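INTERNAL AUDIT FORM
Audit reference: QA-55
Scope: verify that the stored structure record matches its stored sequence.
Auditor: D.O.
Record contents follow.
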Amino acid sequence: MFAQFLNNRIIRQSLLIGLLLGSHSAYAVHLDVELWGEGNTMFAGFCRTANIVGCDLDSLASDLNLPQGTLPQESTTGKLIFIADFQDLTGGPFKTKNPGFQSVLNSLQADELVSYRALGKLRYWEANATSWSVAPTDTQIRLFGGLDAQTSIINDSQQCGGQLFCFSGLGTDQSTVFSADGILAKPELGVDITNNVGILHTHLSFFLENQQGELGGPIGAYLIEMQVFSNFHPIPSAPFLVLLNAGLTHNEFSKALQGLAKAPTNNTPTPPSENTNNFVLTPGDVDFDGDIDRIDVALILLAAQKQEAVKPDGDSRDLDSDSQITRNDAFLAKEKCSLRLCAIPVIPVTPGVAPTARYDVNARLLTLRDVQVEQQHYYVQFQVQDDYRLVLKTAQPQAPQSGQALLYDLDRQQLEIPSVQVHNKYYRALLGHSGGVDFNLEQWEELGNVSD
C-alpha cells in the first residue's frame, strides 16, 4: 500500500513537518528565496504569500520591529535580506534548513538546474554590538546539500533524448564554507533541478561550526551573501544576504537587522509631516517597490479571495476606488503591468483527458488520478480534515495513466499538485507527509477562474 511504502522509506528521516507548520516560532523567523527567470537572467526576491511558512513578509517585518514601509534590505547596498534562525528546527541550536528556495509558477523550464554562487566574507553581530564586523576567525557557516553538476553532465545527445546535454543525477552532496577569510570549499553548487513542470522547492542545510567542523559558535547574528543562476538563465541574480540568528533574543536580533536596514546616521531622512505617509501611494504597487508586476497582481488576488477590508488611509489594492478589493482590481493592475508574468493564469484543459486532481467539496475528498512513487503508479484519495490535514484513504497500485503523473518526492516527503479545480477556480497545492497516513497542506495558491 502507498502509505506503508512511504513509511518504510521515509520514517527514518521524518522531520515532523506537521509540528513545524504549527509552530509560531518557525512561522515567524524565516523568509524563503523566491526565484524566477526573465530572458537570460535569473531573479531572486521575497516570497510574499501571506500565511504561508517562509512567505509572510509583512508579519515578519512587524515581528522584528522594522519601521512601517521598510523592507529587509541593506540600506547601503539595497541588497535583500532573507531571515533565518539556527534554532527553528529540531536539529539543534546550530543548524537550520532555512531559508528555502522556491520558484514562481510558470517561470522556470522543466529540468532546469538552478545553482548558487557564494560571495563575500562572513559578517558577525554580537549581542551588545552597535555595528557589524567580520566574524571571528575560528567560526564559519557551512552550506551543505548543494549538488556538483560538473561531473554529472552528459554531452551525448543519444543518451539525452536528442538534447545537447542532460544530467545523469547529481551525485553526492557537496558544501560551501563562508568564513572571515572569504569563501572556501565549493563556491558554486546546484540548488536543485526543477521538476517536469518547472517547479522547484528546496531546503539546503546551514551549519554554524568551527574550522574543525565541530558544531557551535559564539552567540550572535551572522550574515552571508550569495546569488543564483541556472543553465537556462545564466546571468545571475543581484546578490542577496542571508541573516542567521544564533541565540540572540528577539530584541537583540531585531537590533542586528535594524543595523543593516536602517538609513545611515549621516543621511537620516526628514520625518514626515503629520498625517502623511512615508511613501507615495501608487495604485497597483502593493509591495511599494516602484513597479507593478506579477507579485502585486497576486497580492491583490489574495486580498480579494480573503475579502480583506480597504485601508482607511488609502489602499493601493483598490484600483477602481470602490472601497472594495476584488478581482476587478487585479485585472486593472494587470493592465498597468509592463513586466512579464503578470497575466492572471488560465489553466488549459486537454480535451478527452481527465484532470489529474479533483476535489469533491461535498465529500471533502481529494482524488489524484495518477501519483508516481519511483517506478510505481497509484490511484490516490485523501480525506480532507478541518485543520489543513489530509488523511490518506486510498492508495491503489495501477498502470500509468494518460496525461502527466504527479511525482511524489521521497527525499522531501512532498507531493506537488500543479492544478486542482475547486468549484470554478483552480489552485496549486503542496502536500507534506507528516507521518503514518497523515499529510499537511503546506501551500495553497489560487491560480485563476475556469472562465478567465
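Auditor finding: record pair retrieved intact. The chain is about 15% helix and 35% strand.
Action required: none
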